[in-house]
Design brief:
The chain is an alpha+beta fold. Helices cover 67% and strands 10% of the residues. The chain contains 13 helices and seven strands. Strands 3-4-5-7-6 form a five-stranded mixed β-sheet, covered by helices on one side. A two-stranded antiparallel sheet has the order 1-2. A hairpin with a 2-residue loop joins strand 1 and strand 2. Helix 5 (113-147) runs antiparallel to helix 7, helix 8 runs antiparallel to helix 9 (272-299) and helix 11 (309-319) packs parallel to helix 12. It is elongated.
Length: 426
């Protein structure tokens, strides 16, 4: 199973030689030099040309876009190399989203921090290669030469060899050097390769991969966007239901009431029993029309879509059984979703006041401050409103929290009650 560790080479010296990752790490470190000489230099050249040519729109913009694509492709190759040789899975970095404008895409690409992180990886990889290649030579090439030293040193012209400041002129000295070289090969060389592989893995993970914080931020953004899509789809479905009820069932009930009215007129008083049934049916039809009209008005009234919050809430306040003062200052209309939620909170609040508060008057204030819409509903009723007591406030809280809004209610016994809602409308 793939992991995200910097190096899977075992730490214990007696297990190093049995691990295939010891040799894969060696291959990877040798590949660093190739990556720097081929890919790194190409990336550097492309970025330099792209930045210098950017003022030349017809030439610089395509070069800039091409260079940024090359950087991301090179980062992908390095992540794939790490996965093959170290079994290291690195979350990929994503380029900026396309806007449709080549000039804006080029500027966004050059301002992309992920792009320069990957470029910085190849710059630091050059230093890693400068250290790694000599270290590999020291780890795997020098010890075998020294291990065989007792067998060939005497064949030299002088019958001796020089190892730094030490002179080897006897079999004993050559044997000691060979033994030390064998110990170095068995224990030090694998640890040296492991350390370099771990450093290489840390470099790749930090510069070629998305950070945990970045991944969480991206996931949160995705969840916020998906939740907003759900909320918008629910509001769209609510508006469709209102339209279907208004244009379909309500119109049929109106037609039925008119037909019953004509039947009552034609029947006259010739058959009192049938006339009574027709009058009852006509009254029921009129009652159904009234209830259906109230239902559709509570879902999403057409006046809200056509004229906004001011007209819709003023109409609701005019139908209230107590005086309602309305103060609405929203110079720029928010989205239909936000308008629907605010309208729903107002209508439900006025309904709760009429049913439970025994209020003489109420006030509604809606103001927009920056990218927030603030709603305050107050009444002079008896107070005691509590969301935990099933007064309908919990439904309002759920509706507001669905769009990252804030809901608070202050309702001491004896009143007044103040309901405050803030929702984003940017």
């Amino acid at each position: 199973m793939a992991t995200s560790v910097a190096s899977p080479v075992p730490r214990a010296p007696w297990r190093l030689w049995r691990s295939p990752y010891l040799w894969l790490a060696t291959v990877h470190l040798l590949g660093d030099a190739v990556a720097v000489l081929v890919v790194g230099l190409l990336v550097l050249l492309m970025l330099i040309v792209a930045v210098l040519a950017l003022p030349l729109a017809y030439l610089g913009i395509p070069l800039t876009v091409g260079a940024t694509r090359l950087v991301y492709a090179a980062g992908g190759w390095e992540r794939a190399r790490a996965a093959i040789t170290r079994d290291q899975v690195i979350p990929p970095l994503m380029p900026p989203a396309r806007t449709g404008s080549a000039a804006k895409d080029a500027r966004a690409a050059l301002a992309d921090r992920a792009l320069w992180r990957q470029f910085g990886y190849f710059v630091l990889l050059f230093g890693m290669a400068c250290v790694g290649v000599p270290a590999i030579v020291l780890a795997w090439s020098v010890p075998p030469v020294l291990i065989a030293l007792p067998f060939y040193y005497s064949g030299w012209a002088a019958g001796r060899s020089q190892l730094g400041p030490f002179e080897i002129d006897s079999v004993t000295k050559a044997g000691v050097v060979g033994a030390l070289a064998l110990l170095f090969l068995l224990f030090v060389s694998p640890l040296l390769i492991r350390g370099l592989s771990a450093a290489d893995g840390v470099l790749a993970r930090n510069l070629l991969g998305a950070s945990a914080t970045g991944a969480l931020v991206k996931r949160v953004d995705q969840l916020v966007e998906s939740r907003q899509q759900v909320v918008d789809s629910v509001e769209a479905e609510r508006r469709r239901m209102e339209r279907d009820l208004h244009d379909g069932a309500q119109q049929r009930l109106v037609s039925l009431a008119m037909t019953l009215g004509r039947a009552r007129s034609r029947l006259g008083t010739s058959n009192p029993g049938v006339l009574e049934l027709i009058e009852q049916a006509h009254a029921e039809a009129m009652q159904a029309i009234t209830e259906l009209r109230d239902l559709t008005r509570g879902l999403h009234p057409p006046v809200l879509t056509d004229r906004g919050l001011d007209a819709a809430i003023s109409a609701v306040a005019a139908r209230a059984p107590f005086p309602v003062r309305v103060d609405i200052r929203v110079p720029v209309r928010p989205s239909l979703t936000i308008e629907s939620i605010v309208y729903f909170v107002v209508t439900e609040s006025l309904t709760n006041i009429a049913k439970h508060a025994q209020a003489a008057r109420a006030a509604i204030q809606i103001i927009r401050v920056g990218d927030r819409l603030r709603l305050v509903v107050t009444d002079d009723g008896r107070g005691g409103a509590d969301p935990d007591r099933g007064t309908g406030l919990q439904g309002l809280i759920d509706r507001v929290s669905g769009v990252d809004g804030d809901f608070s209610v202050v309702s001491p016994i004896g009143g007044p009650t103040v309901v405050t809602v803030e929702v984003p409308c940017g």
